[in-house]
Each structure stands twice: as structure tokens, then as C-alpha cells.
Design brief:
The structure holds two protein chains of two kinds. In chain A, α2 crosses α12 and α3 packs parallel to α7. Chain A has one domain: MetI-like (MetI-like fold). Chain A starts with a helix and ends in an 8-residue tail after the last helix. In chain A, β1 and β2 form a beta hairpin. By secondary structure, chain A is mostly helical. Chain B is α+β, with helices and mostly antiparallel strands. Chain B has two domains: 247 residues, 3-Layer(aba) Sandwich (Rossmann fold); 93 residues, RNA polymerase II/Efflux pump adaptor protein, barrel-sandwich hybrid domain (OB fold (Dihydrolipoamide Acetyltransferase, E2P)), CATH 2.40.50. The chains are: A mainly alpha, B alpha+beta.
Chain lengths: 275, 352
Amino acid sequence: MNRRAQLSALLALPMLWLIGIYIFSLVMLLVTAFWVTDPFTSKVKPGFTLRNFEQIIANPAYATTSLRTLGIALAVTVLSILISVPLGIFMAKVASPKLRAILAVAITLPLWAGYLVKILAMRITFTEEGFFNSMLGPLGISGPGFSIVTVVLTLTYLWLPYMAVPVYTAIRQLPPNLFDASSDLGAGAGFTIRTVVLPLIKPAIIAGSIFTFSLSLGDYIAAKFVGGSTQMIGSIIASNINLNPPIAAAFSLVPIAFVVIYLLSVQRTGALERM
Amino acid sequence: MHASAQQAPSTTDVTPAPGAVSLAGVSKTFGDFTAVEALDLDVKPGEFLSMLGPSGSGKTTVLRMIAGFENVTSGSIHLSGVDVTQVPPHARQVNTVFQDYALFPHFTIAENVGYGLRVAGVSRAERATQVGVALEQVRLSAVADRLPHQLSGGQRQRIALARALILRPQVLLLDEPLGALDKQLREEMQIELKQIQREVGITFIFVTHDQEEALTLSDRVAVFNNGRVEQVGTAREVYEFPATEFVARFLGLSNLIPAELSADGVQSSVRPERVRLLTADTAASAGTVSLLGTVSETVYTGPTTRFLVDTESGVRVIAERANDHHPSAESAFARGDRVRVEWTTDHASRIG
């Protein structure tokens, strides 16, 4: 085989996938956002209109939901970082090899269980008659119930491995003698973490945050089952999927825009090259 | 912070001597493996002491225990007369130059050198001044704003030195700092290290597996083997009068002479350059061990030529001669020549 034929053989299926399915469906989404739905027949008609976007801008519920979703995604990301960094430092620098292995399994375990299973677990835990309320009830304290707080906790539960694993790996890969050197020069643990560890694992934190952020932005099942009345962008898209696909498509562009803005803002850090 | 290292001396403490390091009965085990066994070592203030030994002999572990990176399993360590056995590394008044430099990759050279001062809370302006002086001392002012990966190995080595010295420690620990450099650069750096040590006048404890480096640099050499110190002495003492077979063999070439051939009936070591090579018909001199034999090999090393002589007593003796004859002339002896080898008895070192 000549070189060209070899390359074709290598790339045929990936290119078919990328262009035929992946890019094509995204383009269709984008195009549909400019189509209209016949209000009487509910049929989608090709055309070109900005009415869908006008509706989204005109209706404050869309803006509120977008901002709420953005806030949830950021909260999930921050919470994941706050958990992952100390956990990673403990695993890489303090834990015995055996404990380290146990923790590594424990962190990745949620990835092995199905998505709905985990949401059901959180629902059972936080339901009105659930664990927190029945334990804390006698003390006059009630748990978060089904609310925006529980959505953040649930999404963190779902996406934490995507932050914890790269952060832990990055800390393990730091040369051990950097810790020695910092200590040798008089720095305590806190100072070393702040000035040496965090700057050096920043690319891993950013890589993890891309997952926690974008996966949270796109989610609606958590809001549906543990969010009570909490609505996310996904909730609105889901409710319009059958009734008004063009509106759903137009609103889908909002989380995509958020992610693109986020990616552009972290691009300079070099984190993307490490993924 | 270094100030906190100044603890009240315990009752066993001697008069404080800034820069003195004293290890008493120090042992270190990792699981079943004994890295260091009941080590006693006293380093004098201002001394350049090398810890020399093969890899795995425990020398680096000892250095790491002095720095505080490793806990001792038993025994005690005193720095400047103060018991620091339980003091964490950041509170010990020692600084370390690491084997692969351990420069912070995300800091500029100036930030690396100034890190210890920053930890100590020294103001930005004062830091800049002191970093400037420190960089000048190692002749690298020009690279202050670069990142470590933009520097050569030799430059990084000097930055690591400047970073450790800027805190004016009482003791500087150096863990094979020249190991990664090529031979020529290493020799330049050896001279520079020696000069810097003389300038700052503090104690240097230098780990190396290179016997020549240890002999060249040190006031005293501690020779390590299997977690123990085999001998401590000046370069001349450990080289000329090795106390054990290991020391004799580790520090350059040595002829180990069995007890029955030695003058006083004890096994001894004779350095090749102490062996005289004579024609076979020369009479044996008084006060020497003198053996007849045949040259089995000659090795030209540049400054010297080595002659391997199989003696009639069955011992192979290496004799080394300086190549001080006319450069184009062949050596006086060739393979197959009958020769006499002899050495003055007090040039031999008894080996216990």
C-alpha cells in the first residue's frame, strides 16, 4: 500500500464519524435554531428567522435559568477543586501505598456505577423522609431537601472523578525533591502548597474543570430528580424537545457558548495541550 | 523558619559551636533493609567533609537525615550543639544543594534564589538586593529573569548553590551536586565550590561516589560501605593509609598484599605508585618487600604507565610509573620482561 492509501485506511472510520455524525449533527442543531415551528401543526419548517433568539432574550426566565445553570456549574467546579487538591496531596504524599490504592478505587468507583443509579442514591439520601432529615429532624435542623444545593452536591458527586484523577496524577508527577527543597528553604506545608504545588498543578485543575464545568452545564436529570423546582438550561431544552425543536436548538447554543468562552479563557494557560 | 530552630539546648549538649554536626549512634532502617547502622560522625565547624561511597552505601540517607527529610530510626543528631533529631527540615539551620538541583520550574531564577528569603518574610526590596549579590557570587546575574529549563546544567547547579547559600546556613549539604555534569565542567565546578566554601567559611557536607572528587575537595573524607563508615580521615590518610580492604579498593588502585608476604605478617595495601619497578638483576634493598616477576601487561594512561607484574610468589602486583621520560620514547619495560618489584615497608598500609 502506498502512503496515501495507508492514511485513508487509518482515517476512514474516524473521519466518517467526525464529519458524518458529530459535526453534521452539530450543524443541524445550529441550522434548526433558525427554523420555525408552525404553532397549529407543531411541524418544524425550514426557513430563516431570528424569532427563536428574540424569544429567548425577551423572556427573562431564559436569562435567569442560564445564569442559574452557570452558577451551578461554577459551584460544582469549585467544590470539586476544594475536595480534589487536599485529597490528591494526601494520596500522593501521605498515604501508604495500600491506602493510596484503596482511595484510587474509591474515587473512580462512582464512574463504574450508572448515572441514574447515582442520582437515585442521592434522591434517596436527600428525600423528605431521607437520612439527613430523619437524623437531624429531632435537632430541629432540616437537610437541603430537593433544591439547588442538592443539585450542586449531586453533580459534584457525579463529576468529581474527572477532577480528582488528573489532580492526583499531577501531584504524583511533581518531583519529590521540590517538596524537600521548599521545606529545606524554610517553608511549611501550607506555604509549599500555595507557592509550589498549586501553580504547578494548575494545568491539571483546568483540565479537570473543563469536564466538571461543561458536564454540569449540560445536565438536566439531576435538576429533575433532586432539584425540586430548580430549573437548568437542560430542563428547558428537554421540555421543548418535542414541542418546539427550534427553540430547544436555539437555547442549546447558550451552554455551548459558555463552554467556548471558558475554553478560550483557559487556552492561554496551556492546559488544553495536556488533555 | 530558621529562627525557630534555636531551641533550648538539652543537658547533654556541649558548648554551641556554629556549624558543628554530630551524629551519635544514628541508624536508619527501611522495612527490613538497614540503610545506616549505628553511625557516629563528628563534623567540625567550617570543615569540608565528603561522604564517599558506592550507591546504596547509606551516604545520601545520612545527608537526608541531617537535613531532616528522613527521620532517624534511632540515635541523635546535633547541629551547632543543639539536638535537632526531632526538628522538621524547615526549622533546621542547614540548606541543601540537591542532586538534580530541584529548582522550582515555574519560578524565574531570581525567584528561585529568593525563595528562602520570601519564606522568611524578607521585604521585596531587600530580597532583590540580596538575590542580586547572590547571583553575582555565582556569576549568573544575566539569567535572573529566565526560567530554570532555559539554563544549562552547570548554570542550574550554580543557581541551586546560590539558592541554598543566600540563607547563610551554618551547614551546607550537597548531594552529588556535580554528578550530572560532564567531566570538564565538573572539574571547573570543583574548584569553584572549594573557593566558595573558603569565602563563606561554613561547614560543607558533600556526598559523592567519585573518589577523586572527594580527595580533591575535602578536608576530611568519610568512606561509607554497607551503611557503615569504614574510615574517616584526611584525603592523604584515607588514600595512603586505608584502614580496610574496602577503603583500599574504593579509593583508586591498590595492591593487596597477603599477610605472608607483608613485612610484619599482616595483610597490607600498597598503592601502585609506591611500587618501584627494577630490572630483575637488581639486588633487593633493605627495608623493602622485594619480589621477582614478569610483566604481563602494560597500560598507557597518559600521565602514567601501569605495569601488571605476575610475581613468583603468585601475587599480581601493579606498578605505576610517571611518564617523565622523553615523550616519544617507549617505556623502559615491555610485556614479557623479567623485573623486580619492591616497596619500602612503611609505604604499605596495614589492613585490619
